[in-house]
Specification:
The chain is of the alpha/beta class. It contains 12 helices and 15 strands. The strands form 5 sheets. The chain has a 7-stranded parallel β-sheet with strand order 3-2-1-4-5-6-12, with helices on both faces. Strands 7-11 form a two-stranded parallel ribbon. Helix 3 links the parallel strand 2 and strand 3. The longest helix has 21 residues. The chain is globular.
Length: 341
């Protein structure tokens, strides 16, 4: 992932010399956030239990910048581990989660424990150690199937899965810790983030990664439902940019939900066609299976609040993001998996 020079320079000026704890920092979004913060001159503490990730993404940062980067192996449910990681941090970027709708249907109690209780423990550790702000990774799943698009933060929430409900519970904890204890918090509702290094070897893989893996293996993309469901596909560089803006913004942030997306929607069928054109022009037509419980039909972010509060605007659109993502998967193919669509 490559940020534009102007965007990176703004992050360097804001983050340089700060100390940031990134929970889930070995994961997909987390790894890119850690890489960016380290390159910008920040000191970074990473906590991750590696249950859905590996150290590959941050290994160079840990080895080459041992004076500024420390890895804590542990769960956010372990108070001693989270204390160790957060102590001394100015900002906590909380990305650790059980991030799958299908898995939350299979393990609802686990989803609540990790996503809700785990967030509460992160907030408490941040409060105990005097952190200035907690940036929480929320989800567009909060909106369920809204009556109209784009989704605005003022819309009623309609969680359709234990995953969505657990993420919303975590948002409420953020607001409560701001109101009760004066801890600055902000809840970023990410919309369908994709990009290089996203896992495709899981039953819960995101749709872009799963499509890439199947196409590179000579298989057709697999789509759940008719494929006309639409998504605001958000390239990971946009999510990293927004996350860093939220971490260092001078705005008064007290748990507000803020949509982070590209502000444009495409159907899953359109995504499959664009990816096949890049990776396997002769691939057979996509295969369709029954739609899945808990999946929303359409999503599209209104990003006006992100612009007004954080100064955020997308720096990459879908096609630019797919170019970089498909190039990475071509160099580093991974086993095919099922997708979130």
């Amino acid at each position: 992932m490559q940020l534009p020079a102007e965007t990176f320079e703004a992050i360097r000026q804001a983050a340089g010399g700060s100390t940031v704890c990134v929970t889930g920092g070995a994961g997909f979004i987390g790894g890119h956030v850690v890489n960016t913060l380290v390159a910008a001159g920040a000191s970074v503490r990473v906590i991750d239990d590696l249950s859905n990730s590996s150290l590959d993404a941050i290994a160079d940062d840990v080895e080459l910048h041992a004076d500024r980067v420390r890895f804590v192996y542990g769960s956010i449910l372990d108070e001693r581990a989270i204390d160790d990681a957060i102590a001394g941090a100015d900002v906590v970027i909380h990305l650790a989660a059980m991030g799958s709708v299908p898995r939350s249907l299979e393990e609802p109690e686990r989803a609540v424990a990790v996503n809700a209780t785990g967030t509460m423990r992160v907030l408490e550790a941040a409060r105990r150690h005097g952190a200035r702000r907690v940036v929480f990774a929320g989800s567009s799943s909060a909106y369920g199937n809204p009556d109209r698009l784009p989704c605005e933060e003022s819309f009623p929430v309609q969680p359709l899965s234990p995953y969505a409900a657990s993420k919303l519970a975590a948002e409420e904890f953020c607001r409560a810790w701001s109101a009760s204890f004066g801890l600055s918090t902000v809840c970023l509702r990410y919309f369908n983030v994709f990009g290089p290094r996203q896992r495709a070897d899981s039953a819960y893989a995101a749709v872009v990664a799963a499509f890439a893996a199947r196409l590179l293996a000579g298989k057709p993309p697999m789509i759940f439902g008719d494929g006309e469901q639409s998504r605001d596909f958000t390239y990971v560089a946009n999510a990293v940019h927004a996350t860093c803006l939220a971490a260092f913004s001078p705005a008064q942030l007290t748990g507000q939900p803020i949509n982070i997306g590209a502000g444009a929607s495409f159907t899953v069928n359109e995504l499959a066609e664009r990816m096949a054109a890049r990776l396997a022009p002769d691939a057979p037509p996509a295969e369709h299976r029954d739609a899945r419980t808990g999946d929303v039909r359409d999503s599209l972010a209104s990003i006006e609040r992100a612009a007004s509060l954080l100064g955020y605007k997308p720096i990459f659109g879908l096609d630019e993001g797919l170019e970089q993502t498909c190039a990475w998967f071509t160099r580093s193919p991974t086993p095919a998996g099922e997708q979130r669509g």
